[in-house]
Specification:
about 50% strand, 16-stranded antiparallel β-barrel, 19 strands, disordered N terminus, two-stranded antiparallel ribbon, about 425 residues, Porin, mainly beta
Length: about 425
């Protein structure tokens, strides 16, 4: 593995390349509107093949660079409709701190820039995406401002701050099942090996922009880079995804002694494997689809489940430990009409923890459904209902994890606008 100093210099180089003046960027888990190899004219680098697609977002030419600006404004209000016991973690603030409030509200704004231009080596694309977030109970009166994407891609290379290769499933939910987006510093290379099939490899590291950014449940550090690989097939709305990673898990050796945790540091092999699948359901509806992602992780628990799962785990187990577990996320997207759409979701997570003298375990299940109404283009509003069941077993003779068994029913109202 790279030494800390070497990786720090590499990460700094990623940022420099990502912020080149060729254009600035954006958007996270969606496919690029400008696929590699697309040709633009010198006279108008923003000229689109489809005039309707050209009107979808704000674009303008800056020299020989096409600059696209897009973003989203979102507000939500959630309430615990039913909970089995006091102390059950329903809501989580920005850094994974559990909240015992019955109500939770949040407002966030995304603003992104995408720059594309033709070079002698192909199309250069740069991206920069900002997110501002304010939630009830935040200790920052002005909210939080963070960078979600900052990278450049050229000739199959992507360098900067972007999604890990392990990402696949994309959420259409506000609270119960937010997508397991993990943004990392990355140097990646992807190549099409046969028609519609690509292979990618990446060196990744850095704190993810998820509710566990505070370092809880941290299994990936700046001085502990991850080697990840991905095989991806895309054709006719079908997607098949295989990915895997390896890294080193460092446990113990903390300044404050903890029960069941070794006083001296130890290093263990960590790895994870993931399978994802998206299937169009055109027999039901033209835009309907099913999507799922299954992950098995050993000493890499930060890659399991959804963001809500990660926050739950971090609040229950706030230190790195040897773990093994799996998660399954599945959803169905249904288009009723041009104005109405629904999403249905289910997930399951199983995690076993290995400590000296104790074998704690965590089990969770989540279910959700929503209805979105689009009275005008790009404006969405509607209700969401979610159910969570969580069980934490401290194991025989253990007292590191709380004995927790409970469930909660949560309702959410969402209003959002994309531009």
């Amino acid at each position: 593995m790279l030494a800390f100093g070497t990786w720090r210099k590499l990460a700094a180089a990623c940022w420099v390349v990502a912020l080149l003046p060729a254009g600035t960027t954006v958007a996270a888990s969606k496919k690029s509107a400008h696929p590699a190899g697309a040709q633009t004219t010198t006279a108008n680098p923003c000229k689109a093949d489809d005039e309707d697609a050209d009107a979808e977002s704000l674009k303008f030419a800056l020299g020989n660079t096409c600059v696209e600006i897009d973003g989203e404004v979102n507000a939500s209000f959630s309430r615990v409709l039913n909970s089995s016991q006091p102390g059950f973690p329903q809501f989580f603030r920005r850094f994974g701190t559990p909240s015992q409030d019955r109500d939770s509200y949040s407002v966030w704004v995304k603003l992104g820039f995408t720059g594309t231009q033709q070079t002698a080596w192909g199309e250069l694309e740069t991206r920069l995406l900002f997110k501002w977030l304010k939630s009830k109970g935040d200790d920052q009166s002005l909210g939080f401002l963070q960078i979600e994407d900052a990278y450049a891609s050229l000739a199959g290379w992507k360098v900067g701050y972007t999604d890990t290769l392990m990402n696949f499933w994309t959420s259409e939910f506000e609270f119960t099942a937010t997508a397991p987006k993990r943004t990392v510093a990355s140097v990646a290379y992807e190549r099409e090996i046969i028609s519609d099939t690509k292979l990618a490899i990446a060196l990744e590291s850095g704190p993810p922009t998820t509710p566990v950014s505070s370092g809880k449940l941290a299994t990936v550090n700046w001085d502990d880079p991850v080697l990840a690989g991905r095989w991806l097939y895309e054709k006719d709305d079908w997607e098949v995804h295989w990915s895997a990673l390896v890294h080193q898990l460092k446990v113990g050796g903390g300044a404050v002694p903890l029960p069941f945790i070794p006083s001296t540091s130890a290093i263990y092999l960590g790895w994870a494997a993931s399978f994802g699948l998206t299937i169009p359901m055109k027999a039901v509806g033209e835009d309907d689809y099913i999507s799922l992602q299954a992950v098995y992780a050993r000493n890499a628990s930060a890659y399991l489940g959804t963001n809500a799962d990660l926050s739950s785990l971090a609040s229950i187990l706030p230190f790195p430990a040897q773990t093994s577990g799996w998660s399954l996320v599945a959803s169905y997207h249904r288009e009723w009409s041009e104005q109405f759409e629904s999403n249905f979701f289910a997930s399951r997570l199983v995690l076993d923890i290995s400590l000296s003298g104790a074998q704690p375990s965590i089990r969770s299940a989540r279910y959700a459904a929503n209805l979105k109404w689009k009275p005008i283009k790009k404006l969405k509003l509607g209700p969401e209902i979610g159910y969570v069941r969580l069980q934490a077993d401290p194991g025989r003779g253990g007292n590191v994890l709380p004995a927790l068994r409970g469930h909660a029913l949560i309702g959410t109202l969402v209003l959002g606008y994309e531009f």
